[in-house]
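Weekly puzzle thread! Below is a chain. First person to post its structure in token form gets bragging rights.
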Amino acid sequence: MLSPNLRTAGIALVTLGVLMAHHEMSYVANIAIRNAVTIHSEAQEVSIRGDGRISIEELRSSIQYPPQHLDPNVQKVTDEMYEQKHWDFRLSDGGDRVECQIHTKPIASHEAPETLSLSAADIGISDKEQYIIHIHGIHHTGTGYLRQTLYDALNNEFLTSEGSMNTSPVVSVQDSLRPYKHLLEEAGEDKVKRDKLLRKYKVAENEGQHLQSIYPSYVYRAKELMAIKGKLRNAGKLSYSADFCTITDDAGHADGNASDNDDTIQFNNEVIGNILFQQWSRYWDTSATFLLQKTPTLDVLLLEKLKVLPTLHVIIVRHPMTRNSAGLASMSVVWVNAWTHVFELLEEGKIDWYAVVTYEALVSHHDQVVKELLEVVRSGMDRHRSGGRNLKRSAYNNGNENAESIEDVGMKDTRQSAYSQRRRLNYRDYNEEPAWASSSIAHLIVKEPSIKYWKTCMSKTSCRHTVNRLTKDIFPHFGYVNVGHRLDPLSSSPRPVTVSREFGRVLFSSEGDALNKFRQSRDDTAGDRNI
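Winning reply:
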């Protein structure tokens, strides 16, 4: 059943997006896009250079001693592993036009090429349930925090409640160093060798976008928009540009070509989906039940099309002005563009299994949001078990039954992963005092750079008009309110933002019926709000 709140929010965003397009400022977003190429981790400032290599600051945080003699010429891991990329990507007309093709041509790899012929069923454990969970969002909106939250919650819930899961890890998150642990062990205490290995193989935040060659990463998209002197409004499109990619095989069949039959399109999607899964599987323990992949983009449709296992998309949204990820006074323009696309996909039923949460709810009403996310997981699993809708594992197998299993490469996950050492926000029970009345407000306070951009926006007529429209017509659908000594109605001025109590939960989900029953079973009077 389509959520009336999702429909209303989507229509409102589309309407606002059309109005904003008519007021488009015809100036080049060079500085804005240059800022977008510098990505900041939620735990610390980490500069991602144009070549995709991580900064020395990130390296210092990952080892016990100061790195020395870092060689800037060391080849990036994806350059070595994936000699040929699968995608062609171009922007034109200021970014209005996106051309992206993903080719089914076999990948060239220097390492374990025989594993590239495996299907998802071969790599995983074919007789047990397995699920992929993709975590989506715009940069600096809490994707890393959400990943850690899901990792902890799924382990706590399923490790104890389902005995069959005790023999293998419940959850695996991607670790870019996982296939190279033996090289680090061989390097021992040799700092020069260890530093070279870290520089070569470690990627920022262990994000899936840096561990594959199927579709263009965010940094490449930003550089492309900067190169063509792109329009400001299209900066938001960078977050979901991969959704425009068409899958093309050697015969020229493409999923965007109406003349090609559904079987050919589905087959090509499964071929590429399996190659992507194989690349990512190097960094997971594929014996785990839940495989988590986090990337701060909104390529939801592409990853839905390429799924080879039942796939849940967990999407996190944050008030655009409180954490200005692009370094733009007009961050609201970027926000509207990006989220209009996402809510259109959800409203049109193109995404089978999803949940949308706000960062503000995850901070202020953490336990309640976690309980509802677990309900979303269980509901989707129940649908998979009963053969419901679109969840079942892809049946594609290219016939190579004797290929080496990815498990034989020697990868082994540990539940005490590096993620357990990440900064954690205070977990609060839903019935306790909300975060705005506690020390957790620190995670909602607007930082000085974002305040500066916000004030600059409010000093400009067009930008101020957009924020005022969002505050009046759009943000009420997300439950946003201001934080002070109490919760106040939302204003357009720079102030900390959270959500009201009735929005301290999953905002929208494919599992609406299950969530409404869950709320009713808890006698939750706020649960009457349809999701």
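Puzzle host: Confirmed. Bonus trivia for everyone else. Confidence is low (pLDDT under 50) at residues 21-82, 107-121, 392-433.
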